[in-house]
Amino acid sequence: MEQRVSIITLGVADLARARTFYERLGWRGQEVQETVFFQAGALVVVLWGRDKLAEDAGLTDRGADGFGGLGLAQNVRSRAEVDEILHQAAEAGATVTRPARETFYGGYAGYFTDPDGHPWEIAWNPGFALGPDGSLTVPDFG
Amino acid sequence: MEQRVSIITLGVADLARARTFYERLGWRGQEVQETVFFQAGALVVVLWGRDKLAEDAGLTDRGADGFGGLGLAQNVRSRAEVDEILHQAAEAGATVTRPARETFYGGYAGYFTDPDGHPWEIAWNPGFALGPDGSLTVPDFG
Asked: Who among B5, B30, B98 is closest to A58 (CB)?
């Protein structure tokens, strides 16, 4: 199995609400057959009915409340950008679950959850190289 | 907010178990401070304690059972590769929750969950272009 991810599918309760939220953050996608596709660099972020995703995956959904065990992050280029995005997300309807703060690794980060509870960390991490295209490279910790 | 994802963090109950699982799939990473980093193209897949992730995100974890509302996918180049990866994952300790089958869009796909229940779809989709580097591009549905 190659070491890569092609698609991240966010299960949503209300597709229009979810799409509007990401559009208010500046994202632009295409909607086809009750599915929204956002090109995100080399991968695709998809919004799809949470019930449909569970059924497709052969899984039982015990409820949409709380933490789902997985988090997404976007690394940004400055502390100011962390604050700006958290503010923008809150204005768009997100819940800021962890206001931005200094991190143990010398960075600055906070979290919001989208309208379906999916957590996003927005982080400035001076130890992780962020390319001009937004690609993130793990440093050699050796 | 730029339209990109830097990190996908998979919350895990047992870091060694999770790392071993992904290594058995052929992935190679670095472990630092009870965190495993896998470079995956332009982004990074991280294994981290589920409890630590919830605490960091300011969220309450109501339990690790079942569907978390989010799914990952890897698109591959052939039907045979779908079968191979699902087989390889099962051998490595995954649960195949949806055996590979024909899909409504003319492809072929199945799902497994990793030892912490994170769902992965392995899909062959002839309508989505997969680059030599594994990048996935959404077609123009217009």
From this structure: B98
